[in-house]
Design goal:
The protein is of the alpha/beta class. It contains nine helices and nine strands. Bound molecules: SN-glycerol-3-phosphate (G3P) and calcium ion.
Amino acid sequence: MWILGHRGASKAAPENTLAAFSLAFAQHAHGIELDTYQVDGQIVVIHDRWLNRTTNGTGLVTCQTLPYLMSLDAGNGERIPLLQDVFSLLPHTALFNIEIKHLHCTDSWIATVQQGIRQSGFPVENIIISSFNHRWLRSIQQAWSGVKIGALTATYPQSGLGFAEDLSAYSLHMALDVVDENYVRKAKQAGLKVLVYTVDHPQDMVMLADWGVDGIFTNVPDIAVNTLG
Ligand code: G3P
Ligand code: CA
């Protein structure tokens, strides 16, 4: 089962920082997940709309200039990374899930990601783009043929797997609180990879492995590696 560092190894290092991503790989995670906002023609890596929880800044992420965002402390002296910075530290065997929290312009978003791929040589087939905003995913898919889409949901939809099939998704990313074994079986029968978030307890890790889940997002990759081997 794939072990993805959720916002990096975010229990032990400040979330969504280069330190957290490097630590996830040092702990032998297979990949990482991160959260992104498109700001000032760049893609910045941060989870919240507001700066105050994870940085020493204030205000809405999307209302700031890039120089201001880059000047902030995101914990332990770490900076808010640009997506391009993350590409440079990824092992080329890693799985890389880019979650979109804010998209301003599809074309320039894709151009920025493709530039990161070109400059780093990271394999595009190891990237999964996900978002709770399925309209954004659809617009990216229409403009970027073949890119892997992760259908992200925090709910157990009445419509079953229809939303993931409509997106021609590669994977289903589902919350631990709502996923069950039957839904996992149906998703896998439909050809979807199933990834579950956020899984920090060893008993949940073992349960999901028994259900045949393909991957977990965890804040504690070291515990997942020890538990799952
Ligand atoms: O992508 C899985 C998970 O990260 C989605 O929830 O709030 O942690 O971004 P959140
Ligand atoms: Ca996320």
